[in-house]
Automatic annotation (TrEMBL):
PANTHER family: CYCLIC DI-AMP RECEPTOR A (PTHR38456)
Native organism: Brevibacillus fluminis
Domain of life: Bacteria
Protein name: Transcriptional regulator
Length: 109
């Protein structure tokens, strides 16, 4: 068994969870926050059989879009107004950051 962990943008989470359920996959959604943008995103935990992992990744890929976002970097700790000029910059976010982990045991009581 594998655990697929997918960090996706909030805008894509409804379509992704609907598609997963429709195709018979079980998933848990967690509200999360990106370390870089410090904006809300959604983390999916999807436990599934090894041979179904490619199907899950395909669903994630088709449900999650890549978007450009403008960010103004937060002042680093300890810097002064004189030494830090925050210029807005554009970053590409998503479609999704996906991790596939081995599951040693699974129990559902
Ligand atoms: P954030 O950490 O808020 O990152 C949002 C986007 O900002 C990233 O998109 C990337 O394009 C950019 N970015 C992140 N760190 C950067 C840096 N040090 N310098 C320049 N640009 C940077 P994605 O790569 O699509 O990531 C989207 C979200 O997925 C991330 O939100 C984070 O919550 C999660 N994520 C991505 N890679 C991860 C990893 N290796 N471990 C844990 N979470 C990860």
């Amino acid at each position: 068994m594998k655990m697929v962990i997918a960090v996706v943008q909030d805008k894509d989470s409804a379509l992704l969870s609907q598609t997963l359920v429709k195709q018979g996959f079980r998933a848990t959604k967690l509200a999360s926050t990106g370390g870089f943008l410090r904006a809300g995103n959604t983390t999916f935990l999807i436990g599934t059989d090894n041979e179904k992992v490619p199907d899950v990744i395909d669903i994630i890929q088709k449900s999650c879009k890549s978007r450009k976002q403008m960010v103004t970097p937060v002042s680093p700790l300890g810097s002064t107004v004189d030494s830090f000029m925050p210029y807005p910059m554009e970053v590409q976010v998503g479609g999704a950051a996906v991790f596939v982990l081995d599951v040693q045991d699974f129990h559902s009581f």
